[in-house]
Specification:
The chain is α/β, with parallel strands linked by helices. The protein has helices at 8-25, 37-41, 45-54, 65-70, 100-109, 137-146, 168-190, 202-210, 331-336, 341-346, and strands spanning 3-6, 32-35, 59-62, 77-80, 93-97, 117-122, 150-156, 196-198, 222-224, 246-258, 263-264, 270-271, 276-281, 315-317, 323-327, 353-356. It binds pyridoxal-5'-phosphate (PLP). InterPro entries: Ala_racemase (IPR000821), Ala_racemase/Decarboxylase_C (IPR009006), Ala_racemase_C (IPR011079), Ala_racemase_N (IPR001608), Ala_racemase_pyridoxalP-BS (IPR020622), PLP-binding_barrel (IPR029066).
Length: 357
């Protein structure tokens, strides 16, 4: 059976490389939180959560309550980025609140709760995707003042310009700084415990690290996703060597000796140019790969061309290997399909076995 191999050494290397890079620019060691959403970017939530625990990561971000509850024993803080949290959920599962309406319904749902729910307000700092508008912040804080069983434990933004050489990055940094100041003052005036503040993902953190001569602060933590998995998509040169941690392996289903002119696969798209042995391997687009056709030019990690067209559960190439590494780095796949590594990775089927080495 095909499987995904997860290289734990590469994962620990990435975390250390990111910490070192940020420490260079930042007087205090930044606190890394790991983003484990969408089945840990397709790597396998359970496996990556255990590795994160081994790496002493304390805070993680997941997609929703279902993901959070499945790893609830492992971390002090698990923020579900989307959806609601049932009032009886474990108290280390925090809710992200992206709108005044969501805040209201969270407050209502917890009115008669037996425990306090930690929440993190998500504020729109310029990406205009989701979040409470800056001019709604006062209203959110006013609601919180009255709320029972709800604790403001975090305030965060998402700087959507980390990858781009664009001034908007710094506009968002400034917007978040103003929000931080405002909430700090609000807390101080009421003796309210200070929440944590964070706004940067991989590329934003690395980028602000580069600029830290200006005294920019990274926040109480940075939310590292793609960098931990070994990639970044920054347009700006980043001097950091990250290592992809996932590789996909497939097993041989069968081999055939084919002659020049023979056709392979649906529609006979591939035509044999030279007599030889061709084999079929047990992974295809049904396992979450994008379907390779004659427009792409992709090879396995050991160099064999993946012959168009890929089938649902298998693909062919000229090889006799019993096992083949389909990829150990998805950048070529992203490039050939005009997309980003995130997409290639998150599509990998959760049904594929994950093997941590
Ligand atoms: C996905 C996500 C991240 C991580 O982004 P990367 O580019 O993968 O580091 C951080 N914060 C939020 C809110 C996210 O949704």
């Amino acid at each position: 059976m095909a499987y995904i191999r997860l290289d734990s050494k590469a994962f620990f290397h990435n975390l250390t490389a990111i910490t070192n890079e940020l420490s260079k620019a930042c007087p205090t060691t930044p606190n890394l939180a790991l983003v484990l959403k969408d089945n840990a970017y397709g790597h396998g939530l359970r496996q990556m959560a255990h590795l994160a625990k081994e790496a002493s990561i304390e805070s993680v971000f997941v997609k929703n309550y279902e993901e959070a509850i499945s790893i609830a024993q492992l971390f002090d803080t698990i923020t579900a980025l989307y959806g609601e949290i049932p009032p009886n959920a474990p108290s280390n599962i925090w809710a992200s609140i992206p709108s005044l309406q969501a805040l209201e319904s969270c407050i209502t749902a917890h009115k008669n709760a037996h425990q306090t729910r930690n929440i993190e307000l998500k504020i729109d700092i310029g990406m205009h995707r989701n979040g409470i508008a800056i001019n709604e912040l006062d209203s959110a804080l006013a609601q919180l003042e009255e709320a029972e069983h709800i604790k403001l434990a975090g305030v965060f933004g998402h700087n959507g310009y980390g990858d781009n050489d664009d001034e908007s990055f710094f506009t968002s940094v400034q917007a978040f700084r103003e929000i931080t100041d405002k909430v700090r003052k609000w807390c101080e005036a009421r003796n309210y415990p200070m929440p944590r503040f964070h706004s940067l993902s991989t590329s934003g953190a690395l980028r602000l690290g580069l600029h830290n001569a200006n005294g920019n602060d990274l926040g109480d933590l940075v939310r590292i996703g793609i960098g931990a998995y070994g990639y970044h998509t920054s347009e700006l040169p980043l001097h950091i060597a990250l290592k992809p941690i996932a590789s996909l392996y497939a097993q041989k289903i069968s081999s055939l000796y084919l002659k020049k002119g023979d056709k392979i696969g649906y529609g006979g798209v591939s035509v044999v140019e030279q007599d030889g042995v061709f084999s079929t391997y047990d992974v295809g687009y049904g396992d979450g790969l994008l379907r390779v056709d004659s427009r792409q030019n992709l090879t396995c990690a050991s160099g064999e061309k993946i012959l168009p067209v890929m089938s649902m559960d298998c693909f062919s190439c000229q090889s006799e290997r019993e096992e083949i590494c389909v990829f150990d780095d998805v950048r070529a796949w992203a490039k050939e399909f005009g997309t980003i590594p995130y997409m290639i990775l998150t599509h990998l089927s959760p049904a594929l076995k994950r093997v941590v080495v």
